[in-house]
Amino acid sequence: MKIKRIVFSDVDGTICSFPDKKENPETRKSILEAIENDNITFVLNTGNPSLPKILKMANELNAKYLVAANGSAILDVEKNEYLYESELSSEIVDKVLKIIKKYDESACFFGKNGYYMVTSNQKVKDFLTDFFEYPNWLYEDAKIFNDIFKIEIYPRPENKDKIVTDIHSLNVLADLAVMGMHMELTAPGVNKGTGALWLCNHLDTNPDFCMSIGDSNNDLSMLKTIGFSYAMDNSPKSVKEVARYFTSDVMQNGLGEAIQDYIFRTKFDIMRQENEDKLEKRKIKEAKNEFYRAKANDK
After folding, report:
1. pTM for this entry
2. Which residues 6+ apart lie within 8 Å of 264 measured at CB?
3. Concatenated DSSP letters for 113-154?
4. pLDDT at 144
5. Nearest residue to 193 via CA among 164, 167, 217, 171
6. Which pLDDT belongs to residue 27?
7. Cis bond leading into 188, ω under 30°?
8. Which Pfam family, an example, fits this chain (predicted)?
9. pLDDT higher than 90, residue 294
10. What are the structural domains of the chain?
């Protein structure tokens, strides 16, 4: 596998603050300059599904790929097509939906063919609609079970541990990430880390020389599997304990600073590979010349 500079970046808490979605203008500037000047391939690796607002951000940041819904879907942004998809089984979706209704909690079910919201709380509905910038929610329970990439549950504090326990007691295969305000379910063995590794393999890229950056527990798998891993200063202790390197807060252009650090740290690896590529091309050229000289002598 080749050494290529690929940056896998979280969105909420890394590019923009969470949950108020504020940005430091320098962050976008840093990303675009790195893409233009340092041959960076920029990838959004987010817990969000491929919402219109995420696709808009991907295009504005010249991201070539989008790893969405915690690794459940990988899109070629330029071609606007799915490269990889992994869905939750209808059995898991059905059982988790029953747990959500048991505690009268709120949740979103993100699918390839639509996004469903389950809630009886108008404030939660308004918040999620505003946060995701998505008004076209579906509410038909009977249609939820197919093509679901990811489930997000937003429990009240007194029910959070109960729901986690109930989900674990189901003995069904699923990947569960628990954050401060919510929890996320994807298909077994599917997370941001597996999404990043799949794309590295697809691009014939050595993950040891790629970069990952995030601020939350759903970033842990990505930080563990990608060589140059960075934790935002606004990360909890659990994230900082896993990342190899650290950077500033999201509102202090921590992402941009981390990208510059990554470019510096990989400078000699890139130069070494460029020299090796030149040497390999020279060998191929010399072999071709030798072949044609031998052909000419045979005549």
Report:
1. 0.89
2. none
3. TEEEEE-S-HHHHHHHHHHHT----B--GGGTTSSEEEEEEE
4. 82
5. 217
6. 98
7. no
8. Hydrolase_3
9. no
10. 6-84+191-266 (3.40.50.1000), 90-186 (3.30.1240.10)
